Amino acid sequence: MKYGADAVSIHVNIGNSYEQAMLRDFSKISNQCKDFGVPLLAMMYFRNNENTTSYDEKSLIHSVRVAVELGADIVKMKVKKW
């Protein structure tokens, strides 16, 4: 914050082997953002261990819900062009 950040951004891969650690970090960062009054942008991707992204509706909804429940103010997602 001493460098003048307007927001904090994090990247989370749901569905791969690092998910648990990423969500634990997400929670810590979210709490710190609340303490400092800084918005949190969560870049959410539903990926497996082969780094393949899933675009099905259930996966996208799940990723957004996780982000919102952990305190994201803004959620960025990559969606497949329809």
Using brief descriptors, characterize the structure shown.
elongated; 38% helix; three-stranded parallel β-sheet; 2 helices; 82 residues
Radius of gyration: 13 Å
Q: How many runs of DSSP E, i.e. beta strands? A: 3
Class of secondary structure makeup: alpha/beta
How many helices? The count is: 2
N→C terminal distance: 39 Å
Pattern of helices and strands: EHEHE
Main sheet overview = 3 strands, parallel
> In which range does the helix fraction lie?
25-40%
Instruction: Give the rounded overall mean pLDDT.
Output: 88
Which term fits the overall shape? elongated
How many domain units? Answer: 1
- Fraction in beta strands: 15-25%
Order of strands, main sheet, comes to 1-2-3
Structure commentary:
The chain is of the alpha/beta class and 82 residues long. 38% of the residues lie in helices and 22% in strands. It has two helices and three strands; from the N terminus they run βαβαβ. Strands 1-2-3 form a three-stranded parallel sheet, with helices on one face.
Short description:
The protein is of the alpha/beta class and 82 residues long. It contains two helices and three strands; from the N terminus they run E-H-E-H-E.
